[in-house]
TrEMBL record:
The keyword Hydrolase applies. Coiled coil: none annotated. Keywords: Hydrolase. InterPro entries: His_Pase_superF_clade-1, His_PPase_superfam, PG/BPGM_mutase_AS, Phosphoglycerate_Mutase. This is Phosphoglycerate mutase family protein. The keyword Cytoplasm does not apply. Pfam families: His_Phos_1. The active site is at H27, E100. SMART domains: PGAM (SM00855). The lineage of its organism: Bacteria, Bacillati, Actinomycetota, Actinomycetes, Mycobacteriales. Substrate binds at R26, H27, G28, Q29, T30, E31, F32, N33, R76. One of its GO terms (biological process) is regulation of pentose-phosphate shunt.
Length: 232
């Protein structure tokens, strides 16, 4: 015998998840990027090209009417995020957990410099999420400090994914390394598979959707990897 209306309504509600959109946006180009020089947590500025990229990305993402914008405190990310904040009127929150990977002895060196000093080390770093540059962080380290930002967002934005604008995303503006680490962590990938993601272009973005039922923690799915604004 079928259940009454209340039981039916509960079943329908269970089949309709709350879906939260999360966009992870990489900063615009710096002169270090243009010169294939490793930045890590060095506080480099946007180049003129990077400033233009930030404006274009802001225009493209502003139409999504972000619910919140959080950024790394490093100025290349912060200045990129400020363009989006200005375009949308959404206040900007700064969080140093979104900083790029600390690269230790590699910071400020070119790829050629590193390859000459430690042949094969950059490949090991790309392929093994647990391996860290001398004196630096591994991708697993980075995910451990950065991924809790998402749990904090879930706590402070109880209507994320619901209300009048359920499709409105939260945008985190950060760096290629931390975005790749957070994406792998949120998707629950085995650490051996964290290297599957290719590089992100400057002002390229990732979109994840977090599906949850009845207040349960979201299960994250990858929607988009390395989207860019037209003309970037």
């Amino acid at each position: 015998m079928s259940g009454g209306p209340d039981e039916h309504d509960t079943s329908v509600e269970r089949l309709t998840p709350v879906v939260r959109r999360l966009i992870l946006l990489r900063h615009g180009q710096t002169e270090f990027n243009a010169d294939s020089r490793m930045q890590g947590q060095l506080d480099t500025e946007l180049s003129p090209v990077g400033e233009d990229q930030a404006r274009r990305a802001a225009a493209a993402l502003a139409v999504r009417t972000p619910r919140a914008i959080w950024s790394s405190d490093l100025q290349r990310a912060r200045l990129t995020a400020e363009e989006l904040s200005s375009a949308t009127g959404v206040p900007l929150t700064i969080d140093d957990r979104l900083r790029e990977t600390y690269l230790g002895e590699w910071q400020g060196k070119t790829h050629v410099d590193v390859d000459a000093a430690l042949p094969g080390a950059r490949r090991t770093w790309r392929d093994d999420a647990t391996w860290a540059p001398p004196g630096g962080e591994s991708r697993v380290n980075v995910a451990t400090r950065a991924t809790p930002v998402v749990a904090d967002l879930l706590a402070v934005l109880p209507d994320w994914g619901s209300g009048d604008s359920p499709e409105a995303p939260v945008v985190l503006v950060a760096h290629g390394g931390v975005i790749a680490a957070m994406t792998a962590s949120l998707l629950g990938l085995p650490q051996a598979n964290w290297s599957v993601f290719g590089g992100l272009a400057n002002t390229g973005w990732v979109q994840l959707s977090g599906h949850s039922f009845d207040g349960e923690p979201p299960v994250w799915r990858l929607d988009v990897w390395n989207a860019t604004a037209e003309g970037v």
